[in-house]
Amino acid sequence: MATDFRIEKDSLGELQVPASAYYGVQTARAVANFPISGLRPHPIFVRGYVMIKRSAADVHKSLKLLTPEQSDAIIKAADELIEGKYLDQIVVDVYQAGAGTSTNMNVNEVIANRAAELLGLGRGDYIRVHPNDHVNMAQSTNDTYPAAMRVGLCLKFPDLIASLDIAITALETKAREFDDVIKSARTHLQDAVPIRLGQEFGGYAAILKRCKERLIAAEDGLRQLNLGGTAAGTGMNADPKYRKMVAEELSRKTGIKFRPAENLFEVTQSLGDFLHFSSALRLLAIELGKIVSDIRYLSSGPRTGLAEINLPPVQPGSSIMPGKVNPSMAEMMNQVCYQVVGFDTTVAYCAQAGQMDLNVMMPVMNYNLQQGLHIFASSIDVFTKKCLEGITVDRERCRMYFESSVGMATILNPYIGYSKAADLAKESVKTGKTVVELIREHKLLSDEQLKDILDPRKLTEPDLQSAGGSSGG
Predict the structure, then answer these.
(1) How far apart are alpha carbons 242 and 439 in whole angstroms?
(2) pLDDT of residue 466
(3) DSSP 3-state assignment of 422?
(4) How far apart are CA 214 and CA 173, in angstroms?
(5) What are the helix (H) ranges across 34-124?
(6) Residue 228's closest CA among 271, 259, 274, 270?
(7) Domains recognised in the chain with CATH numbers
(8) What pTM did the predictor assign?
(9) Can 318 be counted among the known catalytic residues?
(10) Predicted confidence (pLDDT) per residue in 208-263, tens digit
(11) Which of 20, 37, 318, 466 is catalytic?
(12) Strand partners, 191
């Protein structure tokens, strides 16, 4: 039916737009041009974009460049979107023309049409609030899109930090709980010198703390904005006061301290801040992935693997093998880590692909950054609660591995000499007896001496080690 559509016009001519749509003609063209993935921008990115439009309207009201009627309608419409209304009207595919012009116009048109309604007009009637002239005043896609990327990432960032803090706390708790558990360390995946399980978990916690510090440092770079630079950094069509005022207004609205970029040309041309942040996410992915893989190794078995620790069962592990339980949460976490590394590869290529005065590869870069941050924040939280917090230890198995390890010979060097220790190691491998059993069998050391030598803290803390002799080289 004809009434299902309205006719709108842009520089390319007239086009039918669904009558019920809050978006307009430029969005409709983009929807027709890019039926690529079905993926839409992350809601928190859209929220950040709308906050920029709201802040701009507020500033232009103060500068008397918009009438109170225009600015108030834009602000009210923006507030509704910020609350989560009309998000289904942000419809342009993630994979679109470069720079994100279609998404910028999608946001402009939705705000303009909702503002028109608030002023008693119909959708598509832009006589009082126009998408370009008023909602997009003193703006370009080239400064608003990267600014919205920055705002969206900074809005989501606390969720990742909160998840990391929970994971760090869980690992530190396990480090204390397992502090007295002696076991064999493994280097080259082979038995090595003694270590306490608590020391391993304390190391994991420290690794994540360092990752957190690097992320916080990288996030600070996202807080500089090129708003007011408009198309190329020159600030054409923007009031000279706008640049500083819009950063201040956006800071008030978000509670995040944004600042104008020192050099608008740098921030318009370069996506280096995003690459730096993505690199910090990749580093977390690699470090966390290593920790998760360790946990999978340590829990392997339970009969034919290491099985030094036990992971909480969360679901059956096989459709054919009754009773099988897999490290499901750890496997999920590993996959997320690998995906984030893949996202970073895309971001790196995008950052390199900027030509001349603008890098146009922002839409796909934005999706990868937002998606990586989102899945990291949620997956780390779930992994901590459903896996890390429920880990238990098999103390006897850890002790048995420790006493069976040929690494025991290293401990005995200062007391019985290298040659004798090497002979015991060979005999242990040949007979299956532990080195401790052979020491007792050959009466090389008394039980009292063994107890003192094998004290877990003396073995694993250099400052407490007995001065029983030189350890050699």
Answers:
(1) 81
(2) 46
(3) helix
(4) 23
(5) 43-62, 68-82, 101-118
(6) 259
(7) 20-137 (1.10.275.10), 143-394 (1.20.200.10), 406-464 (1.10.40.30)
(8) 0.92
(9) yes
(10) 999 999 999 999 999 999 999 999 999 999 999 999 999 999 999 999 999 999 99
(11) 318
(12) 186
